[in-house]
Design brief:
membrane, mainly alpha, DoxX family protein, DoxX, transmembrane, 117 residues
Length: 117
């Protein structure tokens, strides 16, 4: 169970670090849809990027220290739930799928980390 937890946590950390990096560097391909399609204020984009990178670090640290991993992956479930709600409110149906996938990956990492205690 621990190996599955490590693999899923690593995938989650890579995906969220990559997404967070795009937000922190204000990549136009990342920021433009957030601000125009979803209505996210531009001042919040670096905050979202910081949350993603911090969560990625917490997920990796959580491989060795379970409480941090459980907290990080639990927060990711909430983060992506909020992102799904944002996509739904904006009627951005194509954006719900990938975001839902990341939420499911977060939930899987959380469950596997708890089960590998």
């Amino acid at each position: 169970m621990f190996i599955a937890s490590v693999v899923v946590s690593a995938l989650l950390a890579l995906a969220t670090a990559f997404s967070g990096y795009g937000k922190l560097t204000r990549n136009p391909q990342v920021v433009e849809p957030l601000t125009t399609k979803l209505g996210v204020p531009e001042r919040l984009v670096p905050v979202l990027g910081t949350l993603l990178v911090a969560g990625a670090v917490g997920t990796v640290v959580g491989i060795w220290w379970a409480p941090i991993g459980i907290a990080a992956t639990g927060c990711f479930v909430l983060y992506f739930l909020g992102a799904i709600i944002t996509h739904l409110r904006a009627k951005d149906w194509p954006g719900v799928g990938p975001t839902g996938g990341l939420m499911l990956l977060s939930a899987a990492a959380l469950v596997l980390r708890v089960l590998s205690l």
